[in-house]
Amino acid sequence: MTGYEKHKDDILRRLRRIEGQVRGLQRMVEQDTYCIDVLTQVSATNAALQSCALALLDEHLSCCVTEAIGHGGDRAREKVTEASRAIARLVRS
Questions:
Q1: What Gene Ontology cellular component terms go with this record (predicted)?
Q2: Are 41 and 28 in contact (CB under 8 A)?
Q3: Does residue 87 contact residue 50 with C-beta atoms inside 8 Å?
Q4: What is the pLDDT of residues 25-42, one digit of tens each?
Q5: Which entry of 5, 26, 35, 46 is 20 to 30 Å from 61 by CA?
């Protein structure tokens, strides 16, 4: 089971919206849109991706990590380490 299973439709909706934003960026470049306008849309797309990533992280922490901690042992430590690494990747991006 994935941590986002209950909110899968919402996550897919977000990703499809982001996909549309990226296609819009491609059109903007094809149409020689002013660079600052393209950069503004790139920023909006990045924000949408970050928001989606945070939603997925929240689901992972509240489901997968919480469940593993409930069972304890090595699996719990692995899940916490995995989550910490994912957070570090998000912070760096």
A1: cytoplasm; protein-DNA complex
A2: yes
A3: no
A4: 999 999 999 999 999 999
A5: 46
